[in-house]
Amino acid sequence: MEIRNTAKRPVKVPLPGGKRLFLGIGGTGQIMPKAADHPPVKKLIDAGEIEITDIGHAGVEQSGGQESSIKSSSARGGGRASRKSGDR
Q1: How far is CA 48 from each of CA 9, 19, 30, rounded to the nearest angstrom?
Q2: What are phi and psi of 50, to 5 degrees?
């Protein structure tokens, strides 16, 4: 899930597990879907300080991007195989 700061000031978004997401003016960030149900996050959404810009699409895009990067790195021969080893 992607969220965006709609307030005219930086916002600290309290997340589950004692973590915080700092969003600058007009800044965006990604949170887990279960974090959107966290009461302090809901309070910021209801107050209009942050908004959820896309729901459920971030995970699909990320997995597609990771697969393509893995394919391209293996096509170049990898990184460890080209390292020289042994005593120097």
Answers
A1: 12, 21, 17
A2: -135, 160
The helix (run of H) or strand (run of E) holding residue 81 is none
- Residue bearing tokens 């700092």: 22
Sign of CA dihedral 18, 19, 24, 27: negative
Choose among 48, 10, 8, 50: nearest CA to 30: 50
Consecutive 10-residue averages of pLDDT for the chain (88 residues): 93 94 94 92 93 66 46 53 71
7's tokens: 């307030």
Residue spans per domain, the chain: 1-12+26-57
